Amino acid sequence: MSYKEIYDSWLNDSRLCEEGKLELESVKDNKEETEYRFGAELEFGTAGMRGIIGYGTNMMNVYTVKRATQGLAEFIKNRGETDMARGVVISYDTRMKSDEFAKAAAEVLAANGIKAYLFSDVHPVPMLSFAVRYLNTVAGIMVTASHNPKQYNGYKVYGEDGAQMSPEDTEVVVSYIQKIQDYLGVPAPTDEQVKKYIKPVPSNVDKKYYKQLKKLTLSKKAVKACGKELKLVYTPVHGSGYIPVTTILKKIGIHASIVEEQTKKDTGFSTVEVPNPEFKETLSMGIALAKRIGATVVFGTDPDSDRLGVAVKNKDGEFEALSGNQVGILLLDYILTRLKEENALPENAAVVKSFVTTGMAKAICQKFGVSLFEVPVGFKFIGEKIKLWERDLSHTFIFGFEESCGYLRGTHARDKDAVVASMLCAEMVCYYTYIGKTVFQRLQEIYDTYGYVLDCNISIPFKGLNAMKDMNAVVDGLKASPVNAFDIYNVVAVRDYSSNTKTEIATGEKTEIGSPLTNCVYYELENGSFICVRPSGTEPKLKIYFSFKANNRGDAEAALEKMQAAVKNIIKA
After folding, report:
1. What secondary structure does DSSP assign to 278-317, as a single string?
2. Torsions phi, psi for 457 (to 5 deg)
3. Which parts of the chain register pLDDT below 50?
4. Whole-angstrom Cα distance, residue 337 to residue 517?
5. Residues 129, 146, 257, 404: which is the catalytic one?
6. 199 has which bridge partners?
7. 458 phi-psi bin (left φ>0, alpha ψ -120 to 50, beta other)
8. Cα–Cα distance between 97 and 303 in angstroms, integer?
């Protein structure tokens, strides 16, 4: 069927809700809009699906959510009655229609005879991940579009280990979803099924989560001395982090000043352009409050509280937003320092990061005698390492992080946890306050010790129905046209993650990377610097990562300017 025929079939279907009919009627004369809505199906990838809220097969709406959930239900039913009884736990954030989509997912599961635990209010990603593990459910569903703009929502599926569902299981779920052609025909539950299968998440789940986090504190003496009078600012940016972050800080004895205007569950995120706390603009209200009270650190969480953004006052008295890499090395350095000081660093300690995350982690881990492992982008791969080490006991997981502001300490969850990261960030401020320095000063000390590294990434947006295809074509083009140098930096080796091979430029020797396959090209440059190009897995953007070692910040910024120009020239962006 053509997109116009599918559009007409939805509009003329008596099962379409009144809101849907009115919305589709309003775009009937807009060819571009109707083609976007019905010219494709919302892709369900390894991170679930994410899209603009609206009616159509290529949009986030109650019907695409029900269809995806029916596919998950078929997957669970195929595993047998035991897993159906174990059930699925469902959470959601503060985005528009998140609660509606969560309820719809629960009802589809109930209609299929599968138990559904539904949180009664917003809960973040890490608490969903924890609940999957604590309740021993077969899967989890998180309704969120993370840090995307307000017009987006999404749907993420978690496996029984609490990590995002594996590529292998996702492939099976997708095969069931694709068989469902009638979006509006997914069965609804009877009243009896709703009563029998939809259950509230037990109240003790939250308590157990906080109990696990308290075990991860590292500086009780400093917190006792400085926690109650600490000058620190936190903003939940209208998201689900407000209750859990303020709760855990209170439990460990740290005072933080809250941006009260941003505690409201505002589906439009009206006080920010985008609810992404890695942007200084998003933290601007927190920075204004920090200036009024004399704080030196501001931190914030995104709508589903899996990402942490931090801004610190620099030597000139101005606030600057730290990158995810900078926050990551600060937390890594703090965690390893405190564990070593307390003689609590295991001999088989291990840290995990994505391969696009800063190379500084290697130098820090080497100094502390800690093993460092690299995995593809996606926190589920960090979760896989945790699961492996729990089985073979070869390593003890200490910390995992990604440059995209995602961090995890502890094994209570298997995804990014901005609640535990917020706790550690606040505790880190306490610790440095206690010993008479600021977080910014410690960051400069790290650079003085290991050398300056500038890490950043840029995103090139793609539009239209063929956005994913066009992005992948750019990466494929790079693989087909070898690059030996980017301006002032020579390429030492090229990693092609789509074929799992690394090629040495000087000799042409090829070796296996030993990584799950993904469409990505990674250029190893001289002195440990790198450039990496990959399509985003969650939004239509081509992501380019840069990491440059230099004598100082000025030299690094000059190199970055040249490298960005060289890369854009090669990919014709």
Report:
1. TSTTTTHHHHHHHHHHT-SEEEEE-TTS--EEEEEE-TTS
2. -140, 155
3. none
4. 35
5. 146
6. 117
7. beta
8. 13
Q: Please answer whether residues 25 and 7 qualify as being in contact, where contact means their C-beta atoms are separated by less than 8 angstroms.
A: no
What's the CA gap between 188 and 170, in Å, rounded?
24
Predicted pLDDT of residue 15: 98
Q: What pLDDT is stored for residue 573 in this prediction?
A: 55
Cross-strand pairs, 92: 143
Q: Where are the beta strands (DSSP E) in 314-395?
A: 319-321, 349-354, 371-375
- For 426, the token pair is 């606040």
Q: Which residues pair with 493 in a beta bridge?
A: 504, 524
- Residue 48: DSSP 8-state: B
Spell out the residues 6+ positions from residue 421 whose beta carbon is closer than 8 angstroms to its own. 308, 331, 407, 408, 409
The Cα 85–Cα 268 span in angstroms is 37
Residue 129 annotated as catalytic = no
Short-list 245, 283, 46, CA closest to 147: 283
Q: How many residues are recorded in the chain? A: 573
Which string of b and e fits 141-160 if b means at least 16 CB within 10 Å?
A: bbbbbbbbebebbbbbbbbb
- What pLDDT is stored for residue 559 in this prediction? 86
Angle (nearest 5°) at CA 42 between 24 and 81:
115
Helix/strand/coil (H/E/C) assignment for every residue in 89-145: EEEECCCCCHHHHHHHHHHHHHHCCCCEEECCCCCCHHHHHHHHHHHCCCEEEEECC
* Residues whose CB is less than 8 angstroms from the CB of residue 115 and which lie 6 or more positions away in sequence, other chains included: 84, 85, 86, 87, 88, 109, 197, 199
| 154 DSSP β-pair partners | 50
State the virtual CA torsion across 27, 33, 39, 41 in degrees, nearest 10: -90
Which residue type does 83 have? Answer: D
Instruction: Yes or no: say if 371 and 336 are a contact pair by the CB < 8 Å rule.
Output: no
Query: Angle, nearest 10°, between helix axes 31-38 and 3-11?
Result: 90
User: Contact at 8 Å (CB) between 152 and 145?
Assistant: yes
CA angle, corner 66, sides to 158 and 98, nearest 5?
70
Please, which residues have CB within 8 angstroms of residue 557's CB and are 6 or more apart in sequence?
Answer: 454
> How many CA atoms within 13 Å lie on the side-chain side of 2?
5
- Please report, for residues 262, 264, 419, the alpha-carbon distance to residue 267 in angstroms, rounded to integers and kept in the order given: 11, 9, 21
3-class DSSP assignment, residue 33: helix
In contact, 405 and 379? CB cutoff 8 Å: no
Give 63-68's long-range contacts (Cβ < 8 A, gap of 24+).
63/20, 63/183, 63/184, 63/186, 64/183, 65/101, 65/104, 65/105, 65/143, 65/155, 66/104, 66/105, 66/107, 66/108, 66/183, 66/186, 67/177, 67/180, 67/183, 67/186, 68/44, 68/155, 68/177
Structure tokens belonging to residue 159: 């496996």
Which H or E run includes 424? Answer: helix 418-434
> What are the tokens at 379?
């926190």
Q: In one letter, which amino acid is 29? A: D
Q: CA–CA separation, 467 vs 293, rounded Å?
A: 46
In this prediction, residue 537 carries a pLDDT of 74
